[in-house]
Write a structure and sequence with these properties.
Length: 215
């Protein structure tokens, strides 16, 4: 079981914000509380890469920028972290991003959650992704599109396991505790499937039930 502090749901207009008391990992946590490596036999990674490369990205801006105090934050605007945000309505992407649509629909079915929304991210070579807790949602399924993957690190200590680095190809990530990715030698492309309104542990259980987790 995860020992992450319970999340408090706050509604800001149409935006759901999750507030946390203590976002960092602690000695009661285990690696499985943070990252679950997945195997999706139905995912075509080459098709996903192609769609990613054909999609126009733009520098990331914090989704709550207008409503929260994100001023002077790295996350307010960065030229080294490019993104493409999909809307919830996947029908408009069937011609341009069919593999992304397929993966989203399968995940929505497996998780019984209509609020699985994809996003693309590109971390430009040599730039870091600093410590942060994701501003929206509490977990996500990330697909690393590079063969040579960068380390994901969590802030804090776990008893008996001081090395909290993770590498994954497809990983369910707990995005509540603060995490970062240090500079990488090449552009780092990630297809992210953000899961809203669902705790990491519930998503993990559903993936296990559907034989979608690496054993
Ligand atoms: Fe993150």
């Amino acid at each position: 079981m995860s020992t992450v502090e319970p999340l408090q749901k706050i509604q800001l207009g149409k935006v759901t914000l999750w507030e946390r008391k203590d976002p960092d990992i602690n000695n009661d946590m285990k690696r499985e509380d943070l990252v679950t490596e997945c195997k999706f036999d139905w995912l075509d990674i080459e098709a996903l890469k192609l769609e990613f490369d054909q999609t126009e990205m733009k520098p990331f801006e914090h989704p709550l920028k207008e409503k929260c105090k994100a001023e002077n934050s790295w996350f307010e605007y960065t030229p080294n972290w490019h993104t493409y945000k999909f809307t919830n309505d996947m029908s408009q992407y069937t011609d341009t991003n069919p593999e992304t649509v397929k993966c989203t629909m399968i995940l929505r079915y497996i998780l019984d959650n209509k609020r699985v929304v994809p996003k693309y991210f590109k971390q430009i070579a040599g730039s870091d992704l600093p410590w942060h807790s994701d501003p929206l949602g509490s977990c996500a399924i990330n697909v690393a599109l590079e063969d040579d993957t960068a380390n994901l690190e969590y802030l804090g200590n776990m008893a008996g396991d001081p090395d909290v680095h993770f590498n994954y190809r497809i990983g369910l990530l707990n995005t509540v505790p603060r995490h970062r990715v240090q500079p990488f030698h090449q552009d780092r492309r990630t297809a992210k499937f953000q899961v809203f309104d669902m705790d990491y542990n519930i998503v993990r259980e559903k993936l296990i039930e559907n034989n979608a987790v690496l054993s």
